[in-house]
Amino acid sequence: MSSPSPLLFEVLNRLNSLVCAVMYGVQPVNPPPLPETGPAIVVANHTSLSDPLVLLASANRRITFLMAQEIYERPLLQWVFRVFNCIPVRRGAVDVRAIRAMVRALDRGDVVGIFPEGGIDQFRDEQGHEGVAYLVVKTGAPVIPAAIWWQKPRPATLIGSLLSPCQAVVRYGAPLVFAGCSLSSDKPALSALTVQIMDAIKALQVTLHTA
Questions:
Q1: Looking at the 3D structure of the chain, how many domains does it have?
Q2: Domain range spanning residue 199?
């Protein structure tokens, strides 16, 4: 499969920024929340299928998102997901192919976006899945926590979410840097690391609720 066109990405990314500004009131965050270069993992809470859109619109770099395979394979939209280099993952299973794709992206110096809670309906874990922690152990990439707040509950369908105007706010936290630490890939260590990452997201959510 040929690589997505950079020009097509730029056009669609600008269109997404316009849509997010008009429909959700989301603008680029200043100062820029992501490191200018090098790998990073963006993690955020997940309550809407529009969450990746507002992260893209508010961040200062391209983000490669992990995406449920059943959404990625929708015929009319798959070409868009390919342009944005989304990585499909089989939910409810350990998808080695998806893990390797994320590791390769980080090794290239890309930014990977993950919602540790999983889906907004099925396969959801409020405590966070441990895949993010495994990526940190494997790559040493810094983790950028983010919190997304929507003014009202969002439609559960992709099209419904896209076409429903709603005020949104995105807030980023300071990078969590684990490189150089003694990290283990055993389950207790991954669980502890996941708790630390989820606590950073929850702390940002509190600041949104009290703002």
A1: 1
A2: 6-27+36-209
**pTM value?**
0.93
Please state the rounded mean pLDDT for residues 34-44: 97
Contact 47, 148 (CB under 8 A): yes
**Lookup: tokens for 19:** 């849509």
In a domain, 1, yes or no: no
Amino acid at 161: S
Band of the pLDDT at 182, cuts 50, 70, 90?
low
Under a CB-based contact definition with an 8 Å cutoff, are residues 90 and 172 in contact?
A: no
User: Mean pLDDT for the chain?
Assistant: 91
State the Cα–Cα distance between residues 90 and 100, nearest whole angstrom.
13
Answer yes or no: is 95 within a domain.
Answer: yes
Average pLDDT over residues 61-81: 93
pLDDT given at position 1: 47
- Angstrom CA distances, 94 to 40, 91, 105, 198, stand at 22, 8, 18, 20
In a domain, residue 50? The reply is yes
196: number of Cβ within 10 Å: 16
